[in-house]
Amino acid sequence: MYAWLCENPTGIDAVQWTELPTPTPKAGEVLIAIHAASLNFPDLLIVQNKYQMKPELPFVPGSEYAGLVQAVGEGVSHLKVGQPVACLAGTGGFATHTIAKADMCMPLPESFPMVDAAAFIMIYATSHHALVDRAQLKAGETVLVLGAAGGVGTSAIQIAKAVGARVIAAASSDEKCALCKSIGADETINYSRENLREALKKLTDSKGPDVVYDPVGGDFAEQAFRSIAWRGRYLVVGFASGSIPALPLNLPLLKGASIVGVFWGGFAKAEPKASAKMMAELADWYAQGKIKPVIDRSMPMSELKAAYAHMGTRGVMGKLVMVN
């Protein structure tokens, strides 16, 4: 097998395409032949030693992937050789093969394309957990999605619309705003040339959004919170801008609003039955056509460094997927 091996997390240049022995699954594990693996923002941070999870060195990056089971370890009964699966394991995806814990694999129907499957779990699980579970979003409420043209942003638009909410998508270009409209956003704000607070005031008749979905952090966080509706819920999803904002605590007091942390990985570990039920609902929504990953482009696995460079330009709309 071959894999992009990171022996020293100093950046993407430290990752090298390396031939390795094909491993044998142990008890509770499966060997997966990887067909597709998506590139997520944590995959960039982890090779820079900036991510919250610090894997043991050396490691293979690639948190999310899909492929076919090639071998099963002792005690694995719900998966079989030849079965298509998707997995969000944190590492191992940027390779031709990987070992995964069997209970972390999502069985796929034959009709589920591998590229979509590799771009599915992280963004939709995060957005469903955020909007449906943590925010308790209701039909008719208004959601502001920041960074709306990215992977989690596009999934948040689709899930909010599936719930019956009104969506205001905020992005950094007219092209990105057009993409958001094409997947269901009711209104858009190009915050590279529009004042976010003034635009929100106009679009909500001064009421403000009921829910703010923020995977970006940085300079727009306080502006968005100052615009939130009474009893609003501000979802802290991530910090793609690289800057963790500090919000004045008088703001939630004055707005009667909540700051709500969103960590799907922690939820999945602490509440596995609830997480499994959520994933089953998401699979049904995909089958019904309510949700579908937006794929910026697919690239050969050998071009991983070029894919990282493209992600670094902030020009990605939806998800980048590497294919074998």
Automatic annotation (TrEMBL):
<keyword id="KW-0560">Oxidoreductase</keyword>
<dbReference type="InterPro" id="IPR036291">
    <property type="entry name" value="NAD(P)-bd_dom_sf"/>
</dbReference>
<dbReference type="InterPro" id="IPR051397">
    <property type="entry name" value="Zn-ADH-like_protein"/>
</dbReference>
<dbReference type="GO" id="GO:0008270">
    <property type="term" value="F:zinc ion binding"/>
</dbReference>
<dbReference type="Pfam" id="PF08240">
    <property type="entry name" value="ADH_N"/>
</dbReference>
<feature type="domain" description="Enoyl reductase (ER)">
    <location>
        <begin position="11"/>
        <end position="322"/>
    </location>
</feature>
<dbReference type="InterPro" id="IPR002364">
    <property type="entry name" value="Quin_OxRdtase/zeta-crystal_CS"/>
</dbReference>
<protein>
    <submittedName>
        <fullName>Alcohol dehydrogenase</fullName>
        <ecNumber>1.1.1.1</ecNumber>
    </submittedName>
</protein>
<dbReference type="GO" id="GO:0004022">
    <property type="term" value="F:alcohol dehydrogenase (NAD+) activity"/>
</dbReference>
<dbReference type="InterPro" id="IPR020843">
    <property type="entry name" value="ER"/>
</dbReference>
<dbReference type="InterPro" id="IPR013154">
    <property type="entry name" value="ADH-like_N"/>
</dbReference>
<dbReference type="Pfam" id="PF00107">
    <property type="entry name" value="ADH_zinc_N"/>
</dbReference>
<dbReference type="InterPro" id="IPR011032">
    <property type="entry name" value="GroES-like_sf"/>
</dbReference>
<dbReference type="InterPro" id="IPR013149">
    <property type="entry name" value="ADH-like_C"/>
</dbReference>
